Amino acid sequence: MSGPHPAVAAVRSAVRRGLADVGTEPPPLVLVALSGGPDSLALAAACAFEARRTHLRAGAVVVDHGLQPRSARAAATAAEWAARTGLDPVRVVGVEVGADGGPEAAARAARYQALRDVAVELSAAAVLLGHTRDDQAETVLLGLARGSGARSLAGMRPVDGLWRRPLLGVSRAQTAAACAAEGLPVWHDPHNDDPGFARVRVRHDVLGSLTEALGPGVVPALARTADLLRADDDALSDWAQALVHDARSDDGGWVANVLGAVPEAVRSRALRAIALAAGVPGGSLTAQHVQTLSAFVTAWHGQGPAALPGGVTADRRCGRLYVAAEPLDDPG
């Protein structure tokens, strides 16, 4: 008897590997973030298949962003299919998309919050996201354009706390072929073809041009670059975490000479961690702010306190760097 279609087998194998360490007692619940598109449908079908033959329980969450005239119908169709496939529980969650950071970022923030809320409510062990190798390549190019450094170029992590991305080694063509082989009811979101979105322009214009100029190996190469940079970034981040601990002084500051004795790549990560721990909002902390902190350590010439976002102040006194929320004025 012949086995499943090669694309179906590839997706199932990726899901099996991605869930190998979620535990067995009690049987863990994993939730698939299901949009109705080919990537998430192929992921959900594979997850349902694996759940039937293992200890896993598998459900689905369909987030309706309300940004398309037929989005509610598409969400309901995806949920009905998920229930027929054996996923349980299946939730449809409507969200209001704000405006902070632009439409892409706002929709992503609303989606992730909805997924997290359902996961917490149901005590899910993981939420599975349908990002593919092509999505990873796009993420690397977007990070390169922003000039965001190694962390951004390292792309998306296969496991990132609650989130799991088992399909990062699977191509978008494979998920589409898997859906076709299994006759899955694919919904194509019009936003995925809207050039008003940066990721869509990268997908259709930039990657298309790179593939035409350099050959079909561009996408795998970009994804492989993300893997290599992620390993480097993890090592540097571990070193920076140890540095934060080692440089800490008893009075709540950090010994400047200890911070200054390491390579800049490590020091900048440590200083970023110190700033975030002091209350600087992550979205407001820029490379310039980190450079300002670094100057207190490596180029101090008596400069006074520096204001950071979130009401945080940095200063150097007696050979120590202090980063803390500004004290309230004395009313007396």
What topology does this entry show?
Blueprint: H1 6-18, E1 29-33, H2 38-53, E2 57-64, H3 71-85, E3 90-94, H4 103-122, E4 126-128, H5 133-146, H6 150-153, E5 159-160, E6 163-164, H7 172-182, H8 198-214, H9 218-247, E7 254-255, H10 256-260, H11 264-278, H12 287-298, E8 306-308, E9 312-317, E10 320-325
Parallel strand pairs: 1-2, 1-4, 2-3, 4-6
Antiparallel strand pairs: 5-6, 7-10, 8-9, 9-10
Explain this structure:
This protein is of the alpha/beta class and 332 residues long. It has two domains: 6-222, HUPs (Rossmann fold, 3-Layer(aba) Sandwich); 248-325, 2-Layer Sandwich (Uridine Diphospho-n-acetylenolpyruvylglucosamine Reductase, domain 3). The protein has twelve helices and ten strands. It has helices spanning 6-18, 38-53, 71-85, 103-122, 133-146, 150-153, 172-182, 198-214, 218-247, 256-260, 264-278, 287-298, and strands spanning 29-33, 57-64, 90-94, 126-128, 159-160, 163-164, 254-255, 306-308, 312-317, 320-325. The strands form two sheets. A six-stranded mixed sheet has the order 3-2-1-4-6-5, with helices on both faces. Helix 3 (71-85) links the parallel strand 2 and strand 3. It is elongated and about 70 Å long. It starts with 5 loop residues before the first helix and ends in a 7-residue tail after the last strand. Residues 328-332 have low confidence and may be disordered.
